[in-house]
Amino acid sequence: MENPHDTIQLSCKGRCFDFPLVEGSEGEQAIDIKTLRARTGLITLDPGYANTGSCTSSITFMDGERGILRYRGIPIQELAQQASFKETAFLLIHGSLPTRDELTQFSEQLTDYSPVHENMRLFFQNFPPNAHPMGILSSMVNSLRSFYPEIANEDEEIKVTVTRLISKIRTLAAMSYKISMGYQVIYPRPDLSYCANFLHMMFDSTVRPYELKEEVVHALRVIWILHADHEQNCSTSAVRLVGSARVNLYAAISSGITALWGPLHGGANQAVIEMLEAIRKGGGDCRSFVERAKNPNDSFRLMGFGHRVYKTYDPRAVIMKEVCHKLLGALGRSDALLDIARELEATALEDEYFISRNLYPNIDFYTGIAFRAMGIPTNMFPVMFAIGRLPGWIAQWLESIRDPHWKLSRPRQIYTGPKETAYTPIDQRV
Ligand code: ACO
Fold it and tell me: Which of 63, 110, 383, 400: CA 20 to 30 A from 189?
């Protein structure tokens, strides 16, 4: 990784300092500044960390300029076409695709661990009716630590905890919906896939059995695979940063869920639908929303557009656009919001503002429409994202705890406040 002959020279206060150049397996390069402050007294200033590599990682490769995304080297397109979500989760977490035996064992464990402690139901019942499902999910995941034993750093126990979490997040999500609707909680069937089981647990009832449709299961599988990891994004960085204080896995994942909730991140899928609804209610005038998004004095942004890393079309959005189209076709449904989405996309993509800033639709632009067609309530869209992202968070957390040089994350700052100031007693203040 480090080439002793390649260095970057920094000239500062009349002195020169050499810093090693680090190269990743795909040729991407970084300056290793671990010794910068000790040697020069300087720190770097990089708000939003757009130029900062916080770790090395062998999990996911993405190239925002060329629109490439691969998990453990395998292109996302191949996984979306051929893999199951369980295989993808296993690949991310354990580093290679599972053998048949490994997959069978993993599937059985996912079914075995799916019930949650009966007392957790009381938590659900005590949230106010309009509580956001992401707030509920992050609290419930955090509380799992109290119900299930502390994780020792033994590989086998970690494996159990990780599988338990992947299984229980599905139960918790479906359960929160059922309880909020006043319906009976449904547990998974061992004969169904992870994705089919989720739909079964969400929508099946004794009064009205849910008919599983292949196209719906397929769409959900693809969505969850596409969401499964995205290297050091905001929520994953939250998991790593919080985890670096050596909190337990549940607490670290709970912080990831909270970060994902934000509309600039995983909450964007909900925000996209709300925006499309607003356009529809306003008579379908996409142009006026595009104009608002361009106005520097208006904080409104086109939700589902733009990405910190992709400066070309999000490769996940390319796949999602097609999946979404096929899903609606298979369900024999038309959705006025999909038509508005298409028009909005076309309007923005030929607008100089969006062209010059490399702003393209991201995955969230299409997932919301697919979730709507599946019957998922809008405020649960970010929860759907969280279930998909869980294997990635876990893989990144595992990678960090296994790093022998794992350090507490502690960025620094450039202070811009007042210089030393004397305390003013209260009766002398004006
Ligand atoms: N609508 C209008 N203008 C935008 C948008 C947008 N969606 N996104 C970026 N811009 C503009 C900014 O105003 C800025 O313009 P300026 O140069 O005139 O100041 C320029 O493009 C660069 O924007 P930044 O905010 O600096 O870009 P950054 O990389 O930090 O932002 C982000 C990425 C947060 C995703 C942004 O594009 C955004 O807010 N998008 C909408 C929310 C969204 O869809 N989030 C989901 C992201 S994908 C995911 O998390 C799964």
Answer: 383
Angle at 349 between CA 362 and CA 80, to 5 degrees: 30
Whole-model pTM? 0.94
366 to 103, 107, 133, 414: CA distances (angstroms) = 30, 29, 21, 40
Output the six-digit token pair for 370: 């697919």
- Cβ of 275 closer than 6 Å to ligand 1, yes or no, is no
Active site residue 364: yes
Virtual CA dihedral for 188, 190, 195, 197, nearest 10 degrees? -30
Tokens of 79: 């996984």
CA dist 201 and 177 (Å) reads 10
- The residue contributing the CA closest to ligand 1 atom 4 is 301
d(CA 107, CA 193) in angstroms, rounded, equals 8
Residue 286 alpha carbon to ligand 1 centre in Å: 18
Q: Which residue, among 272, 200, 235, has the nearest Cα to 386 in the 3D structure?
A: 235
Beta carbon of 268 within 6 Å of any ligand 1 atom: yes
Contact of 267 with 378, CB cutoff 8 Å: no
Catalytic residue among 285, 364, 403, 427: 364
pLDDT digits (tens, 9 = 90+) for 111-165: 999 988 888 888 888 888 888 999 999 999 999 999 886 666 677 788 889 999 9
Please tell me the distance from the alpha carbon of residue 217 to that of residue 284, in angstroms, as a whole number.
Answer: 31
Look at residues 114, 108, 174, 102 and name the one whose alpha carbon lies nearest to residue 144.
Answer: 114
**Could you give all domains of the chain from N- to C-terminal order, each with its CATH number?**
2-63 (2.20.28.60), 74-265+378-399 (1.10.580.10), 268-374 (1.10.230.10)
Separation between Cα atoms, residue 178 and residue 175, nearest integer Å: 5
Residue whose CA lies nearest to ligand 1 atom number 22: 357
Read off the pLDDT of residues 289-338 as tens digits, 9 standing for 90 and up: 999 999 999 999 999 999 999 999 999 999 999 999 899 899 987 788 88
Q: Across the strands, what pairs with 4? A: none
